[in-house]
Write a structure and sequence with these properties.
With 643 residues, the protein is of the alpha/beta class. It has 2 domains: 360 residues, no CATH class; 156 residues, Glucose Oxidase, domain 1, CATH 3.50.30. The chain has 22 helices and 16 strands. The strands form 4 sheets. Strands 9-10-14-13-12-11-15-16 form an 8-stranded mixed beta sheet. Strands 2-1-3-4 form a 4-stranded parallel beta sheet, sandwiched between helices. Strands 5-6 form a two-stranded antiparallel ribbon. The protein is globular and about 75 Å long. The two termini are 37 Å apart. One of its GO terms (cellular component) is cytosol. It catalyses: 6-phospho-D-gluconate = 2-dehydro-3-deoxy-6-phospho-D-gluconate + H2O. This is Phosphogluconate dehydratase. Keywords: 4Fe-4S, Carbohydrate metabolism, Gluconate utilization, Iron, Iron-sulfur, Lyase, Metal-binding. Its EC number is 4.2.1.12.
């Protein structure tokens, strides 16, 4: 099927908008690539330090500088269930790299924190900033200039985006992402949600809640709901940075170990000097970024990626904004229902057809760019497959023709919805996003008086005091990245769910975030500009009528214009958010972070040598430049120069 014209138009607009930065980025990659392996630029003393502790045979390979050396960058720790399996991956990788004629070194580790542990705690205020910290740690790991390719071991919320941002700043190096897989299915998600709401109502003890949560999160692997961690895995596959079908294979299985070993062998082959050079800065181009946005919509993925994908794109010299997300959402059907957008978990999704099925359906519907580079070479169609063992060897076959369970996964011809799960909201409160894939149609339009809170603790106190048993819109302010690091506000979900189930009309509006666990209550999040940056959300007063219309994509305070214009922002004492639990170490991040729509990042697009008439259509602009109808006009600047 021909590509959808909106897909082509949005891609061309992004390419045109990004051209000066993308061109400069690709020029930097070419400058970073030297003749021969990177370690060939090192002096003898430097090189000797680099392989001093290496086994004798591996040291010989590095000394002769003829075979590829692969960096391992890992977010391993044994507190996070998703990252605990990475403990034994380096041994598998090193052995497989030797078999392929190269070597692998553990180049460095990155921090990895769990939003599930820090939820509602002061440590959550470091969570978003940990992404850029991980990117910097990745750069430190690769700074030794010893490597020809890299394997990145990570799964969860900020970790994969941080690793990829770091990888793109070393975009001349090929990169393969190596996941660990999900934990086995525990308590049913519907039952888990029910128990959380009972606890929020004071009908269950903490011991009963902990017992239920322990049945849900019970072993190694990622959490099994479709939040940011598992959205990461979907996006790495559709961007061609995983081996096909690698995302949702459980840890500690023969298939998982086989895929890890094959990733190492593939890294040797695509390394500079390995024969099939594929630098990650060329794999991640405008088309790959658009493919990622499409897959996010098609699967009802995490709202965090309205920030993370923006930051990832900028690391590759590509500029996207929420208009791009919104226009693509309108044409992309919803193919999956995985909790919190349904009852199933990712293990059910995987059994029903998994990522290969989604990629194939979207390709056949003309909703993905097939003509992209991936770690397998040219063409995304090769990722519409699933791994299996045939005669004891790891091989791939086409994804199943039919879904194994159409309650979980459907073909593009029979979707759950004709459009994706994310929408842009605009109005006199700013720009925001809302995830509607889990919100029933009758709850998508709310008009009710505001109740303003400056913290989630203040909201929860009023809820427990019985003050919120009415129709209202909770306006939670000073939750943006500059104010307090933009923590997730998941602890509000059970309380709001209780009120909605009682028949109350409720919604949440905030400059904070809710992430992949955004659920059945309408929540306009990431409101930009944030209040501390002068955003109009700070003008809202308790009692103002707020209209949230997720169908029309509008978010407004129904206040007379003169009265609205005369108001200033309310003030709040944020001093308690800036010290303790290491928060003072991140003061420079809070001072320099960009808006949510610009990726909530502490790095920016590099300055250009000369002004350009292409410096148009910045995030939040009206996107009015010429759109192209011929897909061949897409500007990607992605040719790899031969030696």
């Amino acid at each position: 099927m021909p590509k959808n014209p909106v897909l082509i138009a949005v891609t061309n607009r992004i390419a045109q908008r990004s051209r000066p930065w993308r061109s400069a980025y690709l020029q930097r990659l070419e400058l970073a690539r030297r003749n021969g392996p990177q370690r060939g630029a090192l002096g003898c003393t430097n090189l000797a330090h680099g392989f001093a502790a290496f086994p004798k045979n591996d040291k010989l390979v590095l000394r002769e500088q003829k075979q590829p050396s692969v960096a391992i960058v890992s977010s391993y720790n044994d507190m996070l269930s998703a990252h605990q399996p990475f403990e034994h991956f380096p041994k598998i990788i090193k052995e497989a790299a030797r078999e392929a004629g190269g070597v692998a070194q553990f180049a460095g580790g990155t921090p990895a924190m769990c939003d599930g542990v820090t939820q509602g705690q002061p440590g959550m205020e470091l969570s978003l900033f940990s992404r850029d910290t991980i990117a910097m740690a990745t750069a430190v790991a690769l700074s030794h200039n010893m490597f020809d390719a890299a394997l990145y071991l990570g799964i969860c919320d900020k970790i994969v985006p941080g690793l990829l941002i770091g990888a793109l700043h070393f975009g001349h190096l090929p990169a393969i992402f190596v996941p660990g897989g999900p934990m086995s299915t525990g308590m049913a998600n519907s039952e888990k949600s029910r128990i959380r709401q009972l606890y929020a109502q004071g009908k269950l003890s903490r011991e009963e809640l902990l017992d239920a949560e322990s049945q849900s999160y019970h072993g190694p692997g990622t959490c099994t709901f479709y939040g940011t961690a598992n959205s990461n895995q979907m996006l790495m596959e559709v961007m061609g940075l995983h081996l096909p079908g690698a995302a949702f294979i459980p840890p500690y299985t023969e298939m998982r170990d086989a895929l890890t070993a094959e990733a190492a062998r593939r890294a040797v082959r695509i390394a500079d000097g390995g024969g099939e050079y594929l630098p990650v800065g060329h794999v991640v181009d405008e088309k790959a970024i658009v493919n990622a946005i499409v897959a996010l919509h098609a699967t009802g993925g995490s709202t965090n990626h309205t920030m993370h994908l923006v930051a990832i794109a900028r690391a590759a010299g590509i500029v996207i904004d929420w208009n791009d997300f919104s226009e693509l959402s309108a044409i992309v059907p919803l193919l999956a229902r995985v909790y919190p957008n349904g009852e199933a978990d990712v293990n059910h999704f995987h059994a029903a057809g998994s990522t290969g099925f989604v990629i194939r359906e979207l390709l056949d519907a003309g909703l993905l760019h097939e003509d992209v580079k991936t770690i397998l070479g040219e063409g995304l169609r090769r990722h519409a497959t699933e791994p299996l063992f045939i005669d004891g060897r790891l091989q791939w076959r086409d994804a199943p023709e039919k879904s194994g369970d159409e309650n979980v996964l459907r073909p593009a011809a029979n979707p759950f919805s004709s459009e994706g799960g994310l929408r842009l909201m605009t109005g006199n409160l700013g720009r925001s996003v809302i995830k509607v894939s889990a919100v029933k149609p009758q709850y998508r339009v709310i008009e009710a008086p505001a109740i303003v809170f400056h913290s989630q603790d203040a909201f929860l106190q009023d809820f427990h005091d019985g003050k919120l048993d009415r129709d209202f819109v909770a306006v939670v302010t000073f939750q943006g990245p500059r104010a307090n690091g933009m923590p997730e506000l998941h602890s509000l979900t059970p309380a709001l769910g209780v009120l909605q189930d009682k028949g109350r009309k409720v919604a949440l509006v905030t400059d904070g975030r809710m992430s992949g666990a955004s659920g059945k209550v309408p929540a306009a999040i990431h409101v930009s500009p944030e209040v501390l940056a002068g955003g109009p959300l700070g003008r809202v007063r308790t009692g103002d009528m707020i209209r949230l219309d997720a169908e029309a994509g509008t978010l407004e305070a129904l206040v007379p214009q003169e009265q609205w214009a005369a108001r200033g922002s309310e003030a709040a004492d944020l001093s308690s958010n800036h010290t303790g639990f290491g928060r003072e170490l991140f003061a420079v991040f809070r001072q320099h972070v960009s808006s949510a729509e610009e990726g909530a990042a502490n790095f920016s697009l590099p300055p250009l040598e000369e002004p350009s008439d292409l410096l148009i259509n910045q995030p939040g602009g009206n996107n009015s430049e010429k759109e192209f109808s011929d897909e061949d006009t897409v500007v990607t600047n992605s040719a790899i120069n031969p030696r």
